Amino acid sequence: MNHHAEQRFHKNLYYALQSMRGRHVGPFVRRLQAWERLDRASFEHLTRMLLRDALSYARTHVPLYSSGEWQTALSRADANELSHWPVLERSMLITHRSQLRARRFTPGVFARNSSGSTGAVVSVSYNPHAGGWSWAQEYRSMHWFGIPTGSRTLLLWGGGHPLLDWVRNCRVFSTKNLTFDQLERAKHYLLEQRPVLCMGLPSAIAQLARHVRAHTPHAPEQLVPFVKLGGEQVYPFQREEIAQHLGARVFESYGSTEMGPIAHECPAGSRHIMSDHVYLEIFNGDEPARPGEFGDLVLTSLFNRAMPLVRCRIGDRGRLSPDPCPCGLPHPVLSELVGRAADMFVTTDGTLVHGSEIGRRLQLFLSTAPLGSVGQVLFQQKDPAHWNVLVESAAGFTDELAAQLRQIVHSTFGESCRVDIERVALVPREKSGKYRYYRRAEST
Ligand SMILES: [Zn+2]
């Protein structure tokens, strides 16, 4: 079977299987493709209609939205107008989960759970239709790059679903145990199977990219045409390393447990909001931010009828671009995106620093360290003046590299910090298989 026949075989099988489960991914992809060809005004009208339907359903079917603050705000106002709705804090998904579930029972409801890396686990129920729409979003946006559904894919992710992964032509390598042998297996898959797409966690794909170049320096310059990153914060150095070592075109997607897909990069490099899936607002405290202002992302799901979330503050922050993207897609652009505020660390003089600052400096370190000398690194803060750094290291790991790691802590958190460097065979992953470059030691 050639690549094209193989891709069509897997696409047809995958769409058929998902339809049997009530998730009409194929028809939804075609619907989304028709919507994305609308002019901006018609597209905005469409998303406003989808939003009104979602709000009307939420108000009548969700117990929480006819109680307390919501009852006060909505009883004498038009509940189909989003501006009347209070903000739903993410913590309420844990404390008020049962009151957020719709009264009507829908068969086939399933849950998506957060990794728990930033506090208590959030579990969100989805109806099969909503699941279908979220998968359709993923596949539709890959079409922007000319990658059809069913294309041969290497997936580096926390876990998989053996049957479904085979059906959609995905070979999964778990990131929970990214040992030398596991990286070798992924490398051989790249070299021998030549997938069209490599998809998954940026920390893992960057590690694989370095591994391939360190151990097979004469491998073809381009090992995979496309790499799609998601699931973790992406650092520019990771993108550069992946592009350089795998010879791939790299793009990013952004989503969350609460909402599913939220934004996806287009070929022109803009991060487009999937506004035919979620309605996104930026808030400053309890008020919508001014146009172009940086603030909290507040999201409303357009299709989830099992646990309809309206104006949920998910903890990430960002900024909307005032300008449309030259690519012509009618979806608005999220020009800036910063991960959860919960990832703040305190320095020796009491200043708060976002953990991504460590990630940024570490990526620079990894991209300049000799290939193969360092695997992953984890910075653990025991208290404001004491850090413990776990390093997966090989023969090439020198005192000079250890000093550079200490310097990352000293320059970010204060020269007086004590920094212990501990060389380990494998840095432990989060339960989800996601990788974090930094964490507080008590949260381990
Ligand atoms: Zn664009």
UniProtKB/TrEMBL annotation:
The keyword Coiled coil does not apply. Keywords: Ligase. InterPro entries: ANL_N_sf (IPR042099), CapK_Type1_Caps_Biosynth (IPR053158). The keyword Ligase applies. GO terms for molecular function: ligase activity. PANTHER family: CAPSULAR POLYSACCHARIDE BIOSYNTHESIS PROTEIN (PTHR36932). This is Phenylacetate--CoA ligase family protein. It comes from Steroidobacter flavus. The lineage of its organism: Bacteria, Pseudomonadati, Pseudomonadota, Gammaproteobacteria, Steroidobacterales.
